[in-house]
């Protein structure tokens, strides 16, 4: 923990300068003691900086209500922005309640583990023996399998299963899926399943002898100080419940009605952001289950072939920039929610809005708040490389640094543990093999796949073990304060300091890296320093009211280092989104073309430009950008057929989705799945001849590939292996790099 505490944040956080919308806001009042201090309130300078971050985010896109809560130790800040009811102009406040959606799964998981600690449930119990109304299946499904979404219990399989409009009992909620077969043998795959958590809710009732609602209220909500949390049923709603909205064609519309008793154990609660904050505080202080149990809940589970799933027991859990993150997101009609905890830093962030489909916005906002709270307001950027080998090497460096720092801090300051530290020289040798330039040059895609699995048990968890050893060495040599600076500074700083420490302390060669990596690192650092713009170290381009003058600055700086430079693509894409929201397509195209000019190997920039070109009806230019993106190792994985289908599903309009599919089949003519999706799209657009032609191509592709192959991305734990999930969803990273 930084000894400077909040003072460092106060001094370093810059205030975004985007013009903030004139939205009402209301913050939680904290009583002042006799000495005039507010022992539970964050310093005023900090709350001003956090408020500016929130208002900057709300300046882009339609806004209804948003409530935000942040805690660091015993200090907290809770505010509401906008309107809980737009039509009646009722403001969102700290007291506003929202549907918790899938954050409910974390409540259910804690309830289950409490009963396990009491000896009333076993993690290894067959769920059929606990909930007899759920029939025995072709394989045994355990309580632990269900907690980690490794059970094979299917997820929603059609529109009807996601549109329940009447209250149902526990038995009726289970009956919806109880006769369905398992989707796969337990533990062989990850499949996010709200139905599986309904089974766990039923297990809570069976083991405790209480209703699910009564158990949560008595054993989870009350001990955690969640005064306003309850099941989301008509009887529990009051004037503070937020009215739900969705965005259609840039305009807010009322949400469709959904009775969430049909998903009671996986998405059936409501509460305030203060309630979520209270739950997070109780989790970090081990007031709901023991420290040992919570450590197990926060550890990522693994498939039977040794792939981490990034999900523990009731929590998404993985490194983020060197922080060990424990979280859950939720989304359903009327709401989007996010709870993020950092056990090693004793920090909780909770967010809720009454607009559907805002997962990306809440995640982005949570990262900005994290930067303000934990990283002294520094804007962390990745590096962009023109050489594909360099980009793969850098991704490996980033993963080693992130996993190493996160796991070391989680194990020493949180309830976590590290993989067994056996044969450290062998682990260093394996890492050197994974980052070998010659091997990467031979097959960049395969090398990148191996690097993205370098933390998995199947590869000996070498990235975690090597990275954690590096973190231990640096903490001992340079102190804990220096160690906590690396998440903001990035992997180049982490590796540079480790190499220097090795030289200064005579670390054995078996715990060092070879000369090629040292040469790469020196070149990366030198290039980064040449291209860095000092005045943008604590300022994002998209948080400026007029970013136009910055373009010439970053372009000139990039010219000083053609091979490696800071990556501004995410910020430039956000600027383009702002123009799109305002229906200013020329501005949108201008910034996307700049993003591609500055980051020619960026998959996200190329794909965003392709979609904008489709909106502008410049369809003939789209395929070229997809081919350029696909030529990179990252693009070969991100633009494989399965990920492409997900991108199409998220397209901003049917026409854009159709255009992407037409380009996709040209990129992957061997994929029957893409041809079949294209046929459906063509038919939906009334193009009968084109639909028939696409179906013929699909049949030919299937005949040429009798045994269906599986995209590597769909096998990866990080990809979740489930495709888009209607309504409720887990916390999914927007890009593979941690």
The end-to-end span amounts to: 21 Å
Please count the beta strands (DSSP E, at least 2 residues each). Answer: 15
Shape: globular
Poorly predicted ranges: 1-20, 708-736
Nearest-integer average pLDDT: 90
Percent in helix: 40-55%
Q: What kind of sheet is the major sheet? A: 8 strands, antiparallel
State Rg.
25 Å
Q: DSSP strand (E) fraction?
A: 5-15%
Q: How many H/I helical runs?
A: 32
What does this structure look like?
Strands 1, 2, 3, 4, 10, 11, 12 and 13 form an eight-stranded antiparallel beta sheet that branches. Helix 2 (44-58) runs antiparallel to helix 12 (359-374) and helix 13 crosses helix 17 (462-478). The model is unreliable at 1-20 and 708-736 (pLDDT under 50). With 738 residues, the protein is α+β, with helices and mostly antiparallel strands.
Chart the SSEs and their pairings.
Layout: H1 6-12, E1 25-27, H2 44-58, E2 65-72, E3 75-85, E4 90-91, E5 98-99, H3 104-117, H4 127-130, H5 143-147, H6 170-175, H7 194-208, H8 212-221, E6 230-231, E7 245-248, E8 251-254, H9 264-267, E9 269-271, H10 273-284, H11 291-298, E10 316-320, E11 323-332, E12 335-342, E13 347-353, H12 359-374, E14 383-385, H13 388-413, H14 424-434, H15 437-442, H16 444-452, H17 462-478, H18 480-483, H19 486-489, H20 491-505, H21 515-531, H22 548-559, E15 564-566, H23 569-581, H24 585-598, H25 603-615, H26 622-630, H27 633-638, H28 641-649, H29 654-667, H30 672-684, H31 688-704, H32 712-715
Antiparallel strand pairs: 1-3, 2-3, 2-13, 3-4, 5-9, 6-9, 7-8, 10-11, 11-12, 12-13, 14-15
Helix pairs in contact: 2-12, 3-7, 3-8, 13-16, 13-17, 13-20, 14-17, 17-20, 20-21, 23-24, 24-25, 25-26, 25-29, 26-29, 28-29, 29-30, 30-31
């Amino acid at each position: 923990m930084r000894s400077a505490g909040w003072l460092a944040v106060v001094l370093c956080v810059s205030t975004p300068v985007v013009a903030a919308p004139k939205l009402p806001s209301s913050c939680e009042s904290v009583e002042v003691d006799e000495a005039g201090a507010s022992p539970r309130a964050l310093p005023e300078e900090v709350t001003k900086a956090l408020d500016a971050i929130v208002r900057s985010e709300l300046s882009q896109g339609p806004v209804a209500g948003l409530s935000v809560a942040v805690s660091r130790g015993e200090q907290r800040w809770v505010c509401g922005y906008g309107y809980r009811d737009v039509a009646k102009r009722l403001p969102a406040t700290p007291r506003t309640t929202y549907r918790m959606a899938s954050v409910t799964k974390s409540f259910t998981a804690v309830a289950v583990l409490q009963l396990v600690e009491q000896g009333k449930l076993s993690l290894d119990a067959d769920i059929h023996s606990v909930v007899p109304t759920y029939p025995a299946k072709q394989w045994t499904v355990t309580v632990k399998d269900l907690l980690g979404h490794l059970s094979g219990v299917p997820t929603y399989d059609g529109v009807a299963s996601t549109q329940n409009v009447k209250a149902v009992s526990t038995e009726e909620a289970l009956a919806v899926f109880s006769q369905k077969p398992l989707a796969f043998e337990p533990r062989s795959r990850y499949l996010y399943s709200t139905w599986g958590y309904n089974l766990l809710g039923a297990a809570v009732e069976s083991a405790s002898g209480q209703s699910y609602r009564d158990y949560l209220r008595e054993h989870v909500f009350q001990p955690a100080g969640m005064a306003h949390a309850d099941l989301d049923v008509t009887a529990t709603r009051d004037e503070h419940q937020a009215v739900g909205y969705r965005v259609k064609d840039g305009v807010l519309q009322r949400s469709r009605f959904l009775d969430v008793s049909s998903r009671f154990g996986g998405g059936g609660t409501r509460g305030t952001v203060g309630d979520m904050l209270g739950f997070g505080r109780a989790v970090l202080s081990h007031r709901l289950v023991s420290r040992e149990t919570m450590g197990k809940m926060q550890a990522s589970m693994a498939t039977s072939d040794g792939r981490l799933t990034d999900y523990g027991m009731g929590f998404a859990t993985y490194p983020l920039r060197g922080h060990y993150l424990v979280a859950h997101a939720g989304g359903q009609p009327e709401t989007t929610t996010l709870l993020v905890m950092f056990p090693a830093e004793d920090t909780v962030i909770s967010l809720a809005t009454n607009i559907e489909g805002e997962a990306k916005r809440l995640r982005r906002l949570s990262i900005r708040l994290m930067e303000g709270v934990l990283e002294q307001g520094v804007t962390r950027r990745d590096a962009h490389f023109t050489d594909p080998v360099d980009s793969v090497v850098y991704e490996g460096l980033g993963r080693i640094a992130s996993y190493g720092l996160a796991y070391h801090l989680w194990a020493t300051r949180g309830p976590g543990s590290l993989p067994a530290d056996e044969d450290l020289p062998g682990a260093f040798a394996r890492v050197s093999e994974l980052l070998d330039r010659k091997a990467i040059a031979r097959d960049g895609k395969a090398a990148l796949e191996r690097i993205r699995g370098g933390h998995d048990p199947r590869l000996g968890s070498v990235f975690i073990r090597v990275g954690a050893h590096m973190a231990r060495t640096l903490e001992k040599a340079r102190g804990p304060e220096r160690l906590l600076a690396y998440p903001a500074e990035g992997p180049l700083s982490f590796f540079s300091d480790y190499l220097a420490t090795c030289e200064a302390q005579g670390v054995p060669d078996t715990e060092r890296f070879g000369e090629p990596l040292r040469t790469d690192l020196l070149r990366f650092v030198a290039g980064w320093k040449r291209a860095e713009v000092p005045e943008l170290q604590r300022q994002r381009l998209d948080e400026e009211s007029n970013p136009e003058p910055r373009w010439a600055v970053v372009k000139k700086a990039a010219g000083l280092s053609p091979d490696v430079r800071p990556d501004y693509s995410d910020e430039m894409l956000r600027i383009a989104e702002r123009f799109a929201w305002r229906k200013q397509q020329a501005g949108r195209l201008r910034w996307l073309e700049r993003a591609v000019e500055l980051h020619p190997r960026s998959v996200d920039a190329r794909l965003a430009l392709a979609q904008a070109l489709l909106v502008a009806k410049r369809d003939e230019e789209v395929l070229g950008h997809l081919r350029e993106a696909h030529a990179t190792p990252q693009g070969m994985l991100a633009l494989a057929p399965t990920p492409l289908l997900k991108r199409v599903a998220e397209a901003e309009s049917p026409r854009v989705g159709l255009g992407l599919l037409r380009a996709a089949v040209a990129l992957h003519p061997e994929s029957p799945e893409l041809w079949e999706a294209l046929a459906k799209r063509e038919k939906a657009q009334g193009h009968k001849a084109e639909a028939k032609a696409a179906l013929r191509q699909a049949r030919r592709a299937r005949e040429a590939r009798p045994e269906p192959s599986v995209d590597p991305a769909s096998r990866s734990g990080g990809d979740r292996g489930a495709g888009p999930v209607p309504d409720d969803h887990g916390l999914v990273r927007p890009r593979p790099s941690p």
